[in-house]
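Case study B.
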Amino acid sequence: MLKMSFIERLAVSTVATVLALLVGLVVVAVTGYDPVVFSRNLLEGSVGSEAAIARTLMFTTLFILTGVSVAIAFRAGVFNIGVQGQFVIGGFATVLAVLKTAPLLPEGTIGGVVLLIVGTLAAIVAGGVYAAVPGILKAYGGANEIVTTIMLNFIAIGAVGWLVEGPFRGEGQSAPNTERLPEYVGLPQLIYDSPSFSIIGLGIALAVAALIAVLLRRTSFGYDMVTSGHQESAAGYAGVDAKRMIVATMTVSGMVAGIAGAVFTIMIQGYYSDPAGIGTYGYDAIAVSLLAANNPLGAIPAGLLFGGLDSAGSYIGISSDVPAQLIDGIIGLVVLFISAPELFRMAAKRTGLGGDEQ
Amino acid sequence: MSLAGCLGGDDSDDSGGSGDGTNIAIVSSPAGFDDNAFNDLALGGLESAKEDHEIEINQVEETQQAQYQSTQSELAQSGEYGLIVLVSYNHTEALTQNAADYPDQNWMLINDHVEEDNVAGYIWANHQMSYLGGVLAGTMTTEEFSEGSGVTAPSSPQIGFVGGVDESLINAYERSYVAGAEWVNGDVEVDVGYIGNYTDTDTAADIASSQYGAGADIVYHAAAAAGRGVFEAAQAEGRYAIGVDSDQSQALPDFQDVILGSAVKYINEGTREAATAVAEDDFGSITGNNTLSLEQEAVDCVIGQAFEGNLPDAVGQNIQEAKQGILDGDITVPCAATGCN
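Model:
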């Protein structure tokens, strides 16, 4: 089943999504709301207006990036559940780097572009380093990366929460927020006039997905990563240092999560706040990646689906009486239908239990 | 054809304040609604304004601070709302942009302020309510009292304070509390401790336990959720505590046997006032920074539900006298609502 063709995979994902929506509509009807109105809200909220489309694409951008981050690790047989933490550390690093570098550079477009690059590089480094830690612990200490990455999420959220609360709180702020990035540091508003979305952000996400797809499929480095994850002995026989590959996989995965953090900071929020309230893109990304069968390019349509659902959720929360939580329920159903069998299969493969498709 | 007649009836499509109905949107803080605190109180105030005025409330729950920018602008863009209420200072950054971008939209911001003509910021006189909490503690520490699960140590006038983060805002709670206790009893000794955050109940309990151990019989906290640890310590040590922000003997009934009283602020007074102003087309009267204090009866010190009617008469008398003194200007409460300098 893991070796399904692309068409089969697409069919499974589509059927699961449609099924989840249908069950969701039944739940809507049972709870006493009109499923027709709800469906219309879903459509209006995700693609019904320019603002809705921009919002959908904003969520999509983050889901693609974090989804690709998860996919890299899963592809290589490493379970990086710590994308949320790497996303937070990366985003915070962007704010720090930009704020510290800004006084040294001229204001205006050129300074802005340089700061964007500095901020993004900082996020890539920070996300990569933060992900390398559990990679090293797994490779050389035998620590289960699922446990360590989950723990590191809490540490990232707690640490950044403390930093914005105290040492990096903006001057005169009664709320625990950092200083805002300078006005001239931001992605230009092309096509969509939305304060939180730029088509360039989406372009970056698509480019990263393509780049990672090429890396995994067309380079020897990518080949080594995937084989050492799935056939360690074969990889070892071919002269690949499996331990180093684990660290490399986690680092690359974390670097992409860092980019997601940078895009979040620069495109959406413009400052950093308590990470408990910035959303759970790094966790949702696990579902995105599973829906995409851990294929970096598959993360694009999967990210679009999740982006559309989240966007509809925001719209429903604002414009309709239907509880927006129902959207979370539908997302949960999609995940359930698609990934539950997938998860069991992967777990079986990893532990050597269960017999099919070895 | 009676088409024209049909149209005539409800052609009053003018948005916002005027007309016979007012639409008000309220966007939650990251804690969300049903929190038995902040968000529910804010919503409750709007609902009580509904009794006197024709108001439609749209409740928008949004728990991600990162979404406030787009949620606010979407609500403003619709042009349907006479007032958009934003719960908590998590909205401040987003509002600094949106208040300027939507100059015709009226906003109410709870617990902070943004310097724009279309924003009504509301804060509560934290220092006054803490002063009253100090009066309660200062009175009780020399009374002989053993109702509930605690007992006082009347021979030594010693009390405690546990704060969340050692910062200006919480320093105002501390100093006003100390001043209130000293107003009752010049000899009172106050132990002060800070946790370093607002969530760590264990550390809060440790600090409170050591204060009780050192001879304090009543501890007041300004530590939000972490304050629960103070109540746990009070139960363990057989002493008393004072709650903060809302009547915590009601919010945390498990601890009503040690919560002598709570320093409370009525968030709902603020939202009711703002909703009423907008419904009466008088938003201009509340723009700017509003501090709700004793004068509006928006802060108070209430007795815990297990102790109502049981406390010595001196408590009620002293609190009443202190309130009057503050209102008359005979008592100057140190610090201000937003902090100490």
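The first strand of chain B starts at residue 22 and ends at 27. The remaining cases will be described in the next quarterly update.
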